[in-house]
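Lab notebook, bench 4. Still working through the backlog of constructs that have no structural model yet. Next entry is a single chain of 537 residues. Request: give me the C-alpha cells for it.
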Amino acid sequence: MPNSTKKSLLEKTIATGIQGLKQFSYLWSTDTLASLPERLKNLWQQLIGSYWFIPTACVLLGILLAPLLIAIDEHFDRKAVKEIGFAFTGSDAAARAIMTAIAGAVLGVAGTTFSITIAVLSMASSQFGPRLLRNFLTDTSNQLVLGAFIGTFSYSLLVLKAIHKQDVAFGVPQLAVTFAIIMAISCALLLVYFIQHMVHAIQASHVIQHASDDAMENIDYWYGKYCDVQHQRDVEQVDIEQYKQWPATPIYAPHSGYLQQIYVESVVALAKDYGGIIRLHTNLGDFVTDRNIIGYFYQRPDDQVSHLQKTKTSNLALLARRPDGNFWQRLSACVDLVRRPTHSNDIAYSLGQVTEIAIRALSPGTNDPKTAISCVQSLTICLSVMMRRQPPSPYHFYTPDHDHDDLTITTNRPRLPILAVITKTPKISDFIDASLGDIRRYATADLMVLKTLCQAMTDLNYSCVNDGQRQTLLRELTLIERAGEENLAYSELVDDLFAMCRQARQFIEGDSAQHQHFEYTGSFSAHIHKTLESQSS
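Model written out:
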C-alpha cells in the first residue's frame, strides 16, 4: 500500500475518532443537560435500530460465557457431573468432534438466514418501497436469531480451544460442552421460528400493521391522552401578541439536510439565556438547505413585563442580548439535520410509510386495490385517534428562578411562566391531506378505493371535536367526487360514487351524526330490497 494511501486512511481514522469524541463530550456538556434524557433515548433507538448491535452483543456474550463456564468446570466435581443424565461425559476426541460440528453447522445456518434476509429485503424493496426496509432491518426477532447463531459459533470456538487430552490435569470441560449442545438445539428451534416469522413478515397485512403501530407510537409520544384545545394557558398573552414587533434576527439552517429532531428543552434554555423568543418555521421531516431561514430570534425589550419579572435584583438581572457565536454554536446542536430521511418521532414519516404502500399497490404494475383499502383503514384508525386527542402545543415556556429579594416568596404568589419557544405544529387537515389525500390522487380511476375513502370520512366524523375538522372532511368528500367524475370510465360508476358522497355529506352535516350509524345503500340495492319486500308481503 502506498504511503499516501496509508496517510490518508490514518487521517480519516483520526478525524472520525475526534468527531466521535466531540459528539460524546457534547452529550455530557452543560448545554445539553436540559434535553439529555431525550438525547440518550434517541441514541438508544439508533443502536437498537441498527442491524449490528444485537448480533454484536450476542457475540460478546458468547465470548464472555465460554471462559466463565470453563472456569466453573475446573472447580466442579466430576462425579456430580456424571450424575446429571443429559450431561456430556465423553472423551476429549468426542468433545472436540461435537464442538467442531456445532461451530461449522451454526455458521452455515447463519449464512443461510442472512441470505434469506437479503432475499426478503430485495422483495420488500420492490413491492413496498425502499423506505419500508427499516422495518425489516430493525426487526428484533431477526437480529436475535442471527445473534444466537454467531454467538454460538464464537462460544464453540473458545470452548474447542480449551479441550485438552486426558493426561493434562484438566481435561474436557464437560459443563461447557453440555451447554454448547443445548445452544445448538436451541439454534435448530430458532431456525424453524425464523422461517415461520419471515413467511408472515412479507405479507402485506403484517407490513401495514407494523407501520401503523409505528405511527401509533409516535402519536402517543406527541399527543395527549385527552382532548384539550386550549394551548395558550399559562402563557402571557402580551408575549403572543407583541413578540413579532420586537427586533428579529433570522435563523439559518446549520447545514443542508432533513430535520430529524428538535431538542426543545435545549432551545428553551438557549432562549432563556439570551432573553428572547425563538420561533421555528420548520417541522420534523422538512428539507432545508444551509441558506434556508428556519426561524427567527425575537429579542425581548429591556422594559418588557415578562423580562422584568425574572429578578428584582438589578445586579442579578439577565439582560437581553443579540445572538453571538456561542448562540449559533448552541443552536446548531439543538437541531439534528441528516442527509437522508430516517426514522424518528415524526408522525408524518410514519403515516407516509402506510401511504407509500397504498400508492405502490395502486400502480399499474401491481394493481392491488385490496392492499390500498387496508392502508386506508389503518390510516383512518390513526387519524381518528389524533382527532380526539390534544395536539402538541406550539408554545414552550419556562418559569424564572427566585432570588432572595423576590417579593413573590413572601406573598406566596407563583411566578408566571415566560414564553421562550414557538414551534410549528401541523394541523389534522395537513395529516389527512398528506395521507388519505395522496391515496385519493392515485386512486382516481378506482371506484372501490374511492368509496373506501368516502367511508373513511364518515368514520372520522365520529371523532370530530370542532367545526374545523368537520369542514376538512367535507372538503375531502368534494375532492373525491371530482376525482371520480373526471376519471371513472362509466356514468353508472360516477352516479354510484356521487350517491355515496351525497349520503356521507348529509350524515356529516347532521346535528346528531356522531350518535347514528352510517350505511350506504345504492339505488339499485334499494330497488331490489323494495321489490323483495313487496313480494314477501
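Notes after review: The beta strands are 248-252, 257-262, 276-280, 287-288, 293-299, 335-338, 395-398, 418-422. The chain is about 60% helix and 5% strand. Flag for follow-up if needed.
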